[in-house]
Specification:
Blueprint: H1 2-25, H2 30-35, H3 56-60, H4 74-92, H5 97-116, H6 121-137, H7 143-162, H8 168-178, H9 184-207, H10 220-243
């Protein structure tokens, strides 16, 4: 039962974050951001409660608004399902609470990077501050990991001076997630996972013509996937080693 509750909680959070980022990116006033009921993007008719159930409403109404037939992007339902599943896996492996926070903040950046091709600077700065504070006061803090990741950031900055293949903002997000992988070998594993996962996904997208060379490719979703996968793989490895009496 608890896994079902965690799954539903994750989906509800995803739905809330998606709606919040949509309102933020579309310049809602503070009053409208907080109090305006959700409505259809096309006909502006207020949505009923049963149209707002994560994933379920999308399936029941076949991905369309019941009044005007507007097609709802499937991204919302997929992201809701995946965040719910992620939280279930985190709970199963007893992942620490700060990782939930970092994952949720990363998740909020994904929709901005996909739909709007940018991340709001204000939100990025808030993420950086929260990430560092959580890491220092809650853990795990490792000075050698910080030296490693800020060296990577410096390298990204130098490369970007000659050829922009990796935005400095994306680099900062990668670094602020990387500091949670300790000891240093875990950080190296995370970096390699990011390289392999990004390379694999981008190769598939290029092969099937879903993106073109020199076309903007959002990197935050790749960082998000790498962070979640690396977190779960690390927890799985620790569980296996513990059973073997090694860890």
């Amino acid at each position: 039962m608890e896994y079902i509750l965690i799954f539903v909680f994750g989906m509800v959070l995803a739905s809330f974050v998606n709606a919040s980022m949509y309102r933020y990116e579309n310049g809602y006033t503070l009053n409208a951001f907080v109090f305006k009921p959700s409505s259809c993007e096309k006909c502006n008719i207020q949505l009923k409660w049963y149209e707002l159930i994560p994933v379920v409403s999308y399936v029941l109404f076949k991905g369309k608004h019941k009044d005007c037939g507007y097609g709802i992007p499937i991204y919302y339902s997929i992201s809701e399902f995946l965040l719910g599943l992620t939280f279930v896996l985190y709970y199963y492996f007893n992942i620490s609470l700060e990782i939930y926070v970092i994952t949720l903040m990363l998740f909020s950046f994904v929709i901005s990077d996909i739909w709007y091709k940018s991340i709001p600077a204000t939100l990025t700065n808030i993420f950086l501050i929260i990430s560092v504070l959580l890491n220092i006061f809650v853990g795990p803090f490792d000075i050698y990991v910080y030296i490693f990741w800020f060296s990577i950031l410096g390298l990204i900055f130098l490369i970007s001076r000659f050829k922009e293949v990796f935005g400095l903002g994306d680099g900062m997000v990668l670094v602020m997630t990387g500091i949670y992988f300790t000891p240093l070998i875990s950080s190296l594993s995370y970096l390699l996972n990011f390289i392999y996962i990004s390379g694999g996904i981008l190769s598939v997208l290029l092969i099937f013509g879903l993106v073109k060379r020199k076309e903007y490719v959002p990197l935050i979703p790749l960082i998000y996937i790498s962070f979640v996968v690396s977190t779960i793989l690390e927890a799985l490895s620790i569980s296996i080693f513990s059973l073997m009496g090694i860890y």
